[in-house]
Amino acid sequence: MQLMSNTKRNIFTYFIIIVSSITLLGVAYLYFSSNRYYISNSGDDQSYKIDRWTGKTWLLINGRQINIDDPEEDEVKTDSETAINLAKSSYDLPNTDVLYNMDNDYAIRSLLGGLKGDLNIIGWSSRKITEQTYLVRYQYQHNGKVNSFNFDINLSESIVRYVNNDPYLLNKYQQYIPEYSSLRYLYDELKNQNVTGLPDFEIFQTQLVEDLDRRKEVFERIKDTYYFIPTEFESFNELYFPD
């Protein structure tokens, strides 16, 4: 009995030691983590955030943190985040019974929430095109097929344009949006307008790409009916069948 009592006492003692050690380590981690960074005010009336662990330093200016060792890194990151936030908060997706007066971020999540089957979210990303222009994309995979919502962002003027329903922008960004094209947009619009006799898109694409006469026939049928169709065949051809 005495042996069992001593064993229990030892186990309890070890348990207390282990718990105490873990607690002390946790407190120490929180202390050092919370004191990892400090603010230093220099003689030139500028403030710096300094990492005690690595020595990395940021200049604090106008609510931003600029890495003084590599300022371009933070500038690119800031512009990229700004572009994505502009795309999220703008109202560019066409209004429907389901999507009415919703910002793009909420509208996209509402659309995806109604999908059936396998859904894999890729999410938001941005690509710098020029100094003030970004292509922002929201990608997802539905039943094995990649789809995307795409936005043309002008940072200097905070202008957002929805790429998916603009064949000119689709042509501009075709190399970055392989899953969607101006011809796909044309097909989707015709389908939405209940045009009769439309085959599957792959057949439709093959017919129009390979057969100029078939292309002219389609143009003549729709040129005076749909607002998004150029009035001249040459313009139609350049827009939907770029080289």
Chain-wise SSE layout:
Blueprint: H1 2-34, E1 37-41, E2 47-51, E3 57-61, E4 64-67, H2 71-89, H3 104-113, E5 119-128, E6 133-142, E7 145-154, E8 159-162, H4 167-172, H5 182-192, H6 201-210, H7 212-222, H8 233-240
Helix pairs in contact: 6-7
Can you describe what's shown?
- The protein is an alpha+beta fold and 243 residues long.
- The protein folds into 4 domains: 1-35; 37-69, no CATH class; 71-172, no CATH class; 181-243, no CATH class.
- 44% of the residues lie in helices and 22% in strands.
- The protein has 8 helices and 8 strands, in the order αββββααββββααααα.
- Helix 6 (201-210) crosses helix 7.
- Mean pLDDT is 77; it is low at 30-34.
Helical stretch tally: 8
Rounded to the nearest angstrom, the radius of gyration is 29 Å
Output the helix-strand order.
Answer: HEEEEHHEEEEHHHHH
- Percent of residues in helical segments? 40-55%
Q: Using DSSP, what is the number of strands? A: 8
**Structural shape:** elongated
Overall average residue pLDDT: 77
Which spans have pLDDT < 50 for at least 5 consecutive residues? 30-34
Query: What class do helices, strands and sheet pairing give?
Result: alpha+beta
> Could you describe the largest sheet, including whether it forms a barrel?
4 strands, antiparallel
Count of structural domains:
4
Sheet with the most strands: spatial strand order: 1-2-3-4
Distance between the termini: 92 Å
